[in-house]
Amino acid sequence: MDEAGELDKVVVDHGWRYTWLGNDPYVFDERTEYLARISPIVLGGLGTATSAGPLGEVLRNLAETASDGGEAATAEAAGDGVTVRLRLLGVRVNVRCAYQECADEIAAFYSASHVPEQASSPEVIVWCETRGAGRYLFRSRPDDHAGTPLDGVSVQTLRSPVQPWTSSLPPIPPLGSWPFKDRFAALHAAAVRLASGECILIAGDRGSGKTTAALALAERLKANVLCDETAFVHCRTNVVESFPHAVGVWRDGRKVRVPITDVCSRIGTEPASISRLVFLRRSAGGRARVSRLTKPQTLRFLLDQHRDSGASIGDAMQTMLNLAERCDASVVDYSVTTDFIDALCELAGDPRPNT
Predict the structure, then answer these.
(1) pLDDT tens figures, 323-350
(2) What is the number of structural domains in the chain?
(3) Domain assignment of residue 169, yes or no
(4) What is the DSSP string of 120-180?
(5) Distance in angstroms between the alpha carbons of the first and the last residue of the chain
(6) DSSP sequence for 235-257
(7) Fewest CB within a 10 Å sphere: which of 139, 248, 259, 331?
(8) Contact call for residues 278 and 327 (beta carbons, < 8 A)
(9) CA 27 – CA 93 distance, rounded (Å)
(10) In a domain, 171, yes or no
(11) Are 149 and 189 part of one and the same domain?
């Protein structure tokens, strides 16, 4: 394990947090509310500190070791492995991979979510012992897999031991555990933020054109893509988090996953407030038709697109009720892709035909 990776694990083991403010590292122990600005040498020493307990006590022990003639310890590389450092749904998540191939696949899937190596401590560490990144790292397993460990995958959060991942929800990010659990209502939807600041949620069944719509709006209206497949809305609000990841595009007659950064240069990284809902629905023949939805109709459409994200059904329902009440909503029935893109642009305030 590299030096930074060892330090990350020790900090998470103790339940501490660290961050760099300019050139100065700060460590915070939330249990004792102890905040300390410390030297990089001592920060490295925390990586090999054997004493458990409050941050202040550990720092005193390190100082006593140095005053006795010894040098403050520095973290050492231990074993093989690669760390992929991510910011997912506003949370620092470090993924420790035993194999480079697995790390490369995870990095490609979340190509827009990498963070600087020493920006701050992770709140979650995911351990992957598999050679490659299986699909269930990013997608939910069937419900009957709940309680069964996911092969080669373990998760650790602040002050918790490393534990096998047994939830049917995906471990990257680990939606079924702190600090993700009970925070978000998930919808099968894309989200884009327009140059005006308006955020549009584009929902629909699989294959309805959500990704195509999001990428088209990014190119044509200079919108920022926040997500293209699953929208995570903070419970009881209309605030959607940025969650960009690999997208499915058609190449040589088949759909393949490619890093979103390969096909889109306008990716939003900050949350936004949803003000408009658009539901895509394929229909036979005719030009695209846009129909306004009543609030009860909007709720029914939202219920169809709800996905489990670790929140209670009560919180998820209240979130969807809130969206139905506060957002303008329309359904676009279409058969030709260019038609529904024109219709979306018109809803967004740009009536120009696609040329």
Answers:
(1) 999 999 999 999 887 788 888 888 887 6
(2) 3
(3) no
(4) B--SEEEEE-SSS--GGGTSPPPGGGTTSPPTTEEEEETT---EE---SS-BTTBTTSTTT
(5) 53
(6) TTSSEE------EEEEETTEEEE
(7) 139
(8) no
(9) 18
(10) no
(11) no
Residue 125 is encoded by which pair of tokens? Answer: 């560490």
Side by side, which strands form the sheet with 163-164?
Answer: 82-88, 91-97, 124-128, 153-157, 163-164
- Residue 286 within a domain: yes
On the CB side of 87, how many CA atoms lie within 13 Å of its CA?
17
Residues 318 and 279 in one domain: yes
In this predicted model, what pLDDT tens digit does every residue of 146-179 receive, in sequence order? 999 999 999 999 878 899 999 999 999 999 899 9
**DSSP letter string, 61-104:** HHHHHHHTTPPPP-----SS-EEEEEEETTEEEEEEESSHHHHH
Alpha carbons 168 and 136: distance in angstroms, whole number: 9
The closest of 48, 50, 4, 52 to 29, measured between CA atoms, is 52
Do 116 and 260 belong to one domain? no
Distance CA 103, CA 131 (A): 9
**7-21, 110-124, 304-318, range with the lowest pLDDT:** 7-21
DSSP 267: B
